[in-house]
Amino acid sequence: MEYLTNLGVDNIPHRESDLLSHSIRVASMLHSYDRPIEEQVAGLFHSVYGTEFQMYKINVTRKEIQSLIGNKSEYIANLFCTLEDRVNSILYGRGLKEPDKTTLRWLEYCNIKDQDPTAVILKEFEIVLHI
């Protein structure tokens, strides 16, 4: 958290909040669903590289993030940030194999749920996640 604050993530607007607060809530949700620690950590860093929806630039390298959170968590975060048509690609598993498909579905589910708990698409994620 201190690292993300030093990057200024707490100053990046994100809906009615800021990116750091959103990321903490996403990671906490992943924890509440008993997802593996690597996924929880990825949740904390899930938008560190920006996304197709969040077009900011944080001055950080993949190598730096890998050394901080580990290769697996960084891989998940990077994949989440770089997928085209991310929501649909994850929901429908386009070009994704297990375990990435399930991991990204949980991450996107928690991401959307934090931003809009009444989003209709959450039902579709719940079906594929069996929740």
Describe this structure in words.
The chain is mainly alpha-helical. It has one domain. It has helices spanning 2-7, 19-32, 37-44, 62-69, 71-82, 86-91, 100-115, 121-129; strands at 13-14, 17-18. A two-stranded antiparallel sheet has the order 1-2. The longest helix has 16 residues, at 100-115. The protein starts with a helix and ends with a helix. The mean pLDDT is 93.
Helix-strand topology string: HEEHHHHHHH
β-sheet strand percentage: under 5%
Could you give a short account of the major beta sheet?
2 strands, antiparallel
- Share of helical residues: 55-70%
> Which geometry do the CA atoms define?
globular
Q: Could you tell me the radius of gyration in angstroms? A: 14 Å
Give the neighbour order of strands across the main sheet.
Answer: 1-2
Overall pLDDT confidence: 93
Please state the structural category. Answer: mainly alpha
The total tally of domains equals 1
Count the helices. How many?
A: 8
Number of strands: 2
Relevant terms:
about 130 residues, mainly alpha, two-stranded antiparallel ribbon
Quick overview of this protein structure:
By secondary structure, the protein is mainly alpha-helical.
Annotate the secondary structure layout.
Layout: H1 2-7, E1 13-14, E2 17-18, H2 19-32, H3 37-44, H4 62-69, H5 71-82, H6 86-91, H7 100-115, H8 121-129
Helix pairs in contact: 2-3, 2-7, 3-5, 4-5, 7-8
